[in-house]
Write a structure and sequence with these properties.
The chain is of the alpha/beta class and 334 residues long. It is built from eleven helices and eleven strands. Helix 6 crosses helix 9. The protein binds iron/sulfur cluster (2 copies). One iron/sulfur cluster binds next to helix 8.
């Protein structure tokens, strides 16, 4: 289905959703930084800036309780957190580099173990993607085979038009329901011209060649050259729409506490630290090698997909200037 919505009606749509109790998450300014966060009103939304962190927090929180426990004498009571309580969410203004990562993550969270915390939030989230009309030097979605108008992962996709408003195209029942539930706000498409798309780095990497090199170079001196300066801060994983490692820890006392699921990162020294004291990734280049291997080899081996959408966020935040696009490009030319 294809429809048109004016900018004014789009803000009405968001306000109606908020008024009826739907959680609407969209880019908004937080202390001068654009982030995907729940809106109190459509007036908070900023559509023209790339959020610093990815949209994954809307359906995969940084930390969440999965169980609570209490002990009284010899009696221990455990209460599971019921995923059914998660709110219906409309995630709006999602850049293609964020939306495209969502079905990639579905593969791992519904593989051997069905992660109901992730899957229930996904079921309850409608993704409203937005074509990118601006990019910066770090963007390279086109190099990994995506584009600023890629609709993968979106239930409904918005293309901004000259003079305001959007073409809305649906790609799922959820996207159609969003339009059908608010028909008075949508019109038939007109002849308005779409705004020019962003023009990120366009040379396409040969990802097959990258994988072949990775298949054959687990041990290679290049890893030291690439990553000896990595400080293991984990920022690259935390801002990434496709990184998804987490740890489960108990927090509390012997009397009461919570079991929590927290984001983790393979860049951290403790990530592979065994209880014996042994650490198979005892040096930082080994940890960074895992980051590249996971994104461009292991995930491809397992799920036939690449774990990088070229959003460029890890490049923007890395405190020592490690540039994943440059690394992958260099590997593709070896
Ligand atoms: S690895 Fe970097 S560029 Fe690729 S999706 Fe993650 S944050 Fe974006
Ligand atoms: S952001 Fe940079 S320094 Fe920090 S873990 Fe990632 S690559 Fe290493």
């Amino acid at each position: 289905m294809q429809k048109y919505i004016s900018r004014q009606n789009f803000t009405k749509l968001l306000d109606q959703l908020i008024a009826t109790g739907t959680r609407v998450v969209a880019p908004r300014m937080n202390a001068g930084t654009p982030l995907y966060e729940p809106l109190a009103s459509s007036a908070e939304m900023v559509m023209d800036q790339l959020p610093r962190r990815s949209a994954k927090e809307a359906y995969f929180p940084v930390c969440e309780d999965i169980m609570t426990y209490e002990k009284e004498g010899q009696k221990v009571s455990i209460t599971d957190i019921d995923p059914a309580r998660f709110p219906e969410t409309v995630l709006v203004g999602v850049r293609p580099c964020d939306a495209c990562a969502i079905p990639v993550l579905d593969a791992v969270f519904s593989w051997d173990y069905k992660d109901e915390f992730f899957l229930e939030r996904r079921r309850k989230t409608t993704i409203v993607g937005l074509a990118c009309t601006t990019s910066d030097d770090a963007c390279f979605c086109t190099a990994v085979g995506l584009s600023p108008a890629d609709t993968k992962g979106s239930d409904l996709f918005l293309t901004p038009l000259e003079g305001g408003g959007y073409v809305c195209e649906t790609f799922s029942d959820k996207g159609e329901a969003l339009i059908n539930d608010h028909t008075s706000l949508f019109n038939e498409p007109n002849n308005a011209t779409p705004l020019p798309l962003a023009q990120p780095y366009t040379e396409k990497f040969d990802l097959k060649k990258v994988k072949v090199w990775l298949d054959e170079h687990f041990e290679d001196s290049s890893w030291d050259e690439i990553a000896l300066r990595c400080v293991g801060c984990g920022a690259c994983a935390f801002v990434c729409p496709a990184c998804h490692c987490f740890d489960i820890v108990d927090e509390g006392t012997e009397k009461a506490g919570k079991r929590r699921k927290n984001w983790d990162a393979c860049g951290f020294w403790k990530f592979t630290h065994h209880a014996s004291g042994h650490n198979p990734r005892d040096q930082q280049p080994k940890r960074y090698r895992n980051r590249i291997m996971h994104k461009f080899k292991y995930y491809d081996d397992k799920f036939g997909q690449t774990l990088c959408t070229g959003c460029g966020r890890c490049i923007r935040v890395c405190p020592v200037g490690i540039d994943i696009a440059q690394i992958v490009e260099e590997i593709s030319k070896k």
